Amino acid sequence: MATSASPSTVRSRPVLQWRVVDIVVASVLGVAGGVVMTLWNLVYSPATAPLELALPGLQALLYAVWLFPAVLVGLVIRKPGAALYGELVAAAVSALLGGVWGWTALAWGIVQGLGAELVFAILLYRAWGLVPAILAGLGAGAGMALMDLTFYYAGSRPEFMAVYATSALISGAVIAGLGSWLLVRGLARTGALSRFAAGRELRPRAES
Amino acid sequence: MQDAEPLPDGGAASLAAHAWSWTPAGRAAPVLSDLDLTIEPGERVLLLGASGSGKSTLLQAWAGVLGGADEGEQRGALTVDGRDVSEVRGRVGLMLQHPDAQLVLARAEHDVAFGPENLGVEIDEIEARVPEVLGAVGLADHAGADTRRLSGGQQQRLALAGVLAMRPAALLLDEPTAQLDPAGVREVVAAVGDLIANRALTLVVVEHRVDVWAPLVDRIVVLDHGRVVADGPVADVLREQGAALAQRGVWVPGHGPEHPATSRSAPGEVVMRARNLAVQPVGGDVIELALDLDVRAGEVVALTGPNGSGKSTVLLTLSGLLSPAAGVVEVSGAGHPESWSSAELAGHFGFVFQNPEHQFVAATVRAELEVGPSALARAARRGSTPLPVNGAEPVVDALLDRLRLRALAAASPFTLSGGEQRRLSVGTALALAPALLLLDEPSAGHDARTWAELVALLAEHRDAGGAVVMATHDRELIAALGAREVALPDRIAAAASSTESSAARVSLGERINPVAAIAASLIPALLLVTTLDVVSAAVALGLQVLLIPFLGIPARTLLRRIAPVLVAAPLAATTIVLYGRASGTVYAEFLLVRISDGSLELALATLLRILAIGVPAIALFARPDATRLGDALGQNLRLPSRFVLGGVAALRLLTVLRDDARLLERARRARGIGDRGRVRRGLGLVFSLLVLSIRRGSALAIGMEARGVGAPGPRTWTRPSPWRASDTAVVAVAVAVSVIAVAAAVLTGEFTSVIS
User: Fold this and answer.
1) Per-residue pLDDT tens for B466-490?
2) Which end of chain B is more exposed for a tag (fewer CB within 10 A), N or C?
3) Which whole-number Å values give the CA distances from B218 to A138, B145, B460, in the listed order?
4) B694 Cβ under 8 Å from any chain A Cβ
């Protein structure tokens, strides 16, 4: 089975400039993420109602569905700004398709995307494993908790806020972080990411 | 021939490779190695070779879209007019196989202008070129057409016009007719023939079918494993290499692929009958066919007819994936398929989709073949199907050998070559030994070798007493299988030509600059989102309801688009009723729920606030238009054009992906796993959609780069995105609404902010 990549070229420093294929695939993934967000917008309330009934604030355990485009696009593209761009495009598409939050989704997209982007930046855009993915998910979750508790649940009680923030962080780490990491591995196995470093590290089949 | 110094303006280009090698990143072996090839200005060359011989790579390299050092490693020299390919952007035009990979904008004339815009050609010049090239490919009457509603042949001619508009000196065509019906093939070949007769153009075509292009070319070059193995005049190469080429999968006249004989035994009893059938595609009009059809065991039925005649829709209706619009479909002794469960469908029918990637659902080839048998076994355990079930293991092992896929049993189906994918897709349909096999355009885009493999598999199924129904326009396939042809009548093609939107009376809502629309809905929303009181939200919403009619949007459109917000707002408010900060009288209290005066008031404020934020955002974008949005973001906000164009292209792909999603749903039903729980089905669907979207995005990136995206220098924007007084007014009114709303709250003493 195929082990690591080409023997002749050793790439020590990542190329940080965006290629056309980076831009197009990041945009397409962002749009796809926006569609998923839009569908989630329609069902999230009934879907999380049982959690909310169990303990108010716990509903945020599933809210990282809104965050996965940030981590996913960051992990696939591996360029500065990719996480922010992916989340922003997804948020814009969800607004364009008629989301509940209108264009304020952009503000959430920026803060959530920045949360993930900051983590990748602190790691100097060199680490793309499971731990960085989970940390980026946490970052995005923190962004969401900050925005939601400041603006959306401003009228709620402190204990609710504590439960909500913790749930948002866990959700970001598990759904957006671990989830995106698994998703990238699955996508790489299909060969769809052959033009990206993320796909070449896990090449399914060397010959053909 | 050429002097390297001044670029021969207007003359045809020369193309050359000198000891050139290309190794894609992550591969150990080069795709093309030590290639030496020179194509003189004005030559017409047909480039042949087996799948994977590096033909497409070579075209992309000459077009300068192969990518830089992080995409792979190159050695030797590759030149256009004696210069490095990176110095002569626009001299070489590249056209690809799929319209989806190269049409970027919604309107035909806008799409044609896309290439020259990226190269920074002056507006006057672009405006002169667009009608000229549309005329050259015979689409002068379709300047205003929606590119998605054109036929396949028209779409490819439009793509050709888009390449021509960049004034190339060489035209490189990568299987431009592989996906077209015979009429479309004729259109495209005729258009290319006209062009090379009238212009100074070097032509290089990659194609499996020699007969289609032989009349237009004067030289054939054959590649094998990245090297030139034959090169010379058409007649000489075909005479000397014809048999060897046919072996490699090239369709050579007089060397047709071998296949089993047609069936000698008479067809058996009827397995399926359709009476007085009319069909209806999703979102389309009813196709009145009054079709009567008996399908017998051991026979092959071919549904033929031009694009749009409803072949695929009939096939989907026969297989129970769509309900008949009128008439009946009945499977002998088993009833009407449209009412069956997914497992029952899979037990009776094997369905093969045109694009195999639409029907793959498993992680490995082996698991893919096991999907049907195990779905049926599960259904049998639950007692929900009367079908007999055999053990899956022996069947799958035998199939792996029969399909010659045993060595790939652990590979992901998506990584297989085109021919291997086709074999696997037929294999998944055969895994349950169904009485009836249904196939949609099974041979489109295949070379002679993979075509022969398909014929052999279908003949085997037929000779074992199975029935086959296929939608196809492949005459050779029909002849090879001795198929009974059922020709569907041509329908009067829906008028796809110039649907110029009535420019006379455009409502404010449609005229407003998209950037103004975003600002007008975002600024007030950001202010409202910081408030907590009823008064500010109520005043804002009230003013909006008064103002929205001025946008001139039809009430029905508005209501349909707003519906989700009308549902979501009360749900969110309910949460606050139960868990909002309590104050005043407490009406109910259990566990963590505390309903009080305070929580009720907060809930009302939340309800009104969500409406006041969501409704104007939707009203201002009642009809989102990706082209206009892109023009505005690029010109009014001056965002980097590469990112804007990437976003616009991705938004256009949205409709393609919606069709993909529909196909994926159907394929899962046909495969027997459509009875699974909603969550599991949803997750599987999202994953497959992501795979398809990345593939489509990667292909589109090549098409966009070939059309000049990412070229150095400033881009030309041909469509102005004016910022009118009305745009300023709309933003000002929106800001005024929120200021009045907050002021009203402050004056009444009700104002509450989240920041306190």
Assistant:
1) 999 999 988 889 999 999 999 988 7
2) C
3) 62, 36, 41
4) yes
Task: Round the average pLDDT of chain B to a whole number and report it.
Answer: 87
Chain A residues touching B571 at Cβ < 8 A: 45-46
Residue pointed to by tokens 């959700």 = A171
Q: How far is A119 from chain B (nearest CA, A)?
A: 23
Which of B346, B350, B398, B338 has its CA nearest to residue B376?
Answer: B346
| 8 A C-beta contact, residue B171 and residue B195 | yes
Tens-digit pLDDT profile for residues B293-323: 999 999 999 999 887 788 889 999 999 999 9
Contact A193 B694 (CB under 8 A): yes
Question: How far, in Å, CA of B347 to CA of A11, rounded?
Answer: 51
B579 close to A (CB below 8 A): yes
Q: How far is CA B556 from CA A32, B427, B551, in A?
A: 27, 48, 14
Cα A117-A119-A122 angle, rounded to 5 deg: 110
Distance, CA of B5 to chain centre = 43
| Minimal-distance CA residue of chain B relative to A93 | B651
pTM of the model: 0.88
The single-letter code of the amino acid at A7 is P
**Residues of A58-92 as b/e, b for ≥16 C-beta within 10 angstroms?**
bbbbbbbbbbbbbbbbbbbbbbbbbbbbbbbbbbb
| ipTM, interface predicted TM-score of the complex | 0.88
Residue B532 near residue B607 (C-beta atoms within 8 A) = no
For A110-169, write each residue's pLDDT tens digit. Answer: 999 999 999 999 999 999 999 999 999 999 999 999 998 887 777 677 888 899 999 999
